[in-house]
Design brief:
Blueprint (H helix, E strand, L loop, with lengths): L1 E6 L6 H15 L3 E6 L7 H6 L4 E3 L10 H11 L4 E5 L1 H15 L8 E6 L8 H10 L5 E4 L2 H10 L7 E3 L14 H8 L6 E6 L8 H14 L3 E6 L5 H10 L6 E5 L4 H7 L2 E4 L8 H8 L4 E4 L2 H6 L6 E4 L4 H13 L1 H18 L2 H17 L10
Parallel strand pairs: 1-2, 1-4, 2-3, 4-5, 5-6, 6-7, 8-9, 8-11, 9-10, 11-12, 12-13
Helix pairs in contact: 1-15, 3-4, 4-5, 7-10, 8-13, 11-14
């Protein structure tokens, strides 16, 4: 299979991690995957090169929605690409346009165009919904990371349910090296007596960090030895740091920036919190569960499909700092419950969210699509 993946950017993130796993698996299976990036180069581009997956495009802006399809059309025709899988909004729209044009000049009605649903895009502008709906019919099929996100896309973005396949994210556990807790804490300069609450992800309004800071302030009134670690980078860092100072908790909240040592951070922590306001399917939750940590997450979208409330963690209403603080205190006061949840979460990841399971699902879906005439419905499962 000659497969081209089209993505907005290669900044570190959940979609990019999933793409790396899928492309690497395709390469190992004998296919010829390549990645076309609409945005500029990034720090994880080298990981694709190491896997033998070429990265193309890398234009300065992801907004050239009317000029980029022409370059893509030339590539699709010249390389006789069988399947085009798009990731994220700009790539979905650009890829649909390019695929539509390319098919007009192809005797074999190729490439098959597969759109993606990565999240419930609650904060999209009206014009984004308009473009999504207007071009959705040019995708031959769709993949989605969660059922809830797919249902949202069907209602608001024109995604056809009969042509969609839900494939949850998966992570690779084989390379995980978790250092001992005490060793991890020494490396991070943390006290053994502190109760460590960890979150990581983009510092973006989607992730709900402001809610977490409010919850931290409430938690620290009753649990003064708690410490909150916030790893990640993004446009809200200065505002969030200012917010922590205003709440007078900046001494107990650390902004760590972008980190690659996820295993170290998880080993040092007591629990993981994800306060997202909307979320497709969080790789961060999967990594925390894989590390055997209980997870507190908001009851939105894919979070509900990952965290089994009361068994692998606790779900709280979105934007409810009080409920989140109560959940943190509950697990802090009941370490046996927290440990049971962490162990159960680890088993759940092993059984349902492994990288091989995810990549094999994509491979099977692609093969199914390429065997059938374009336009044949792809049944959901």
């Amino acid at each position: 299979m000659r497969i081209l993946f089209l993505i907005d950017n290669l900044r570190p993130g959940g979609a990019q991690k999933a793409l790396l796993g899928i492309a690497t698996a395709l390469k190992a299976a004998g296919s010829e995957p390549a990645v076309w990036c609409l945005g500029g180069s990034s720090s994880i581009e080298g990981e694709f090169a190491a896997a033998g997956v070429p990265v193309l495009g890398r234009h300065k802006s992801a907004w050239r929605i009317f000029s980029q399809p022409l370059a893509l059309v030339r590539y699709l025709k010249r390389e006789k690409v069988d399947l085009l899988q798009t990731f994220l909004f700009h790539s979905d729209v650009t890829g649909r346009i390019a695929g539509r044009i390319a098919k007009g000049f192809s005797r074999h009605n190729r490439p098959v165009v597969v759109g993606s649903v990565r999240a419930s895009n609650l904060r999209n502008h009206w014009w984004q919904f308009f473009l999504a709906r207007s071009t959705a019919r040019w995708s031959d099929a769709f993949t989605s990371v969660s059922w809830r996100s797919l249902q949202f896309a069907a209602e608001h973005e024109g995604v056809a349910l009969p042509r969609a396949r839900v494939i949850p994210n998966g992570i690779d556990l084989s390379s995980w090296r978790m250092p001992p807790r005490d060793e991890a804490r020494r490396a991070l300069g943390l006290s053994p007596e502190e109760f460590i609450v960890l979150t990581f992800g983009r510092l973006h309004k989607q992730k709900g960090h402001t809610v977490l800071l409010k919850a931290a302030a409430k938690t620290l009134r009753e649990l003064p030895n708690a410490r909150f670690l916030i790893a990640g980078y993004g446009p809200l860092q200065e505002k969030l740091e200012a917010r922590a100072r205003k709440l007078k908790i900046d001494g107990r909240v650390q902004f760590l920036g972008y980190r690659r040592d996820v295993e170290l951070l998880l080993s040092a922590s007591d629990l993981f919190v994800l306060p997202s306001l909307w979320e497709g399917m969080s790789n961060a939750i999967l990594e925390a569960m894989a590390a055997g940590k209980p997870v507190i997450a908001t009851a939105v979208d894919g979070n509900v499909e990952q965290v089994v409330d009361g068994k692998t963690g606790l779900l709280t209403p979105p934007a409810d700092a009080g409920a989140m603080a109560e959940a943190i205190l509950r697990l802090a006061r009941d370490p046996e419950l927290a440990q049971r949840m962490g162990l159960t979460g680890r088993l759940r990841v092993e059984e349902e969210f492994g990288l091989e399971r995810m990549t094999q699902a994509y491979l099977a879906f692609y093969e199914e699509l390429l065997k059938e005439p374009v336009g044949t419905a792809a049944h959901t499962q």
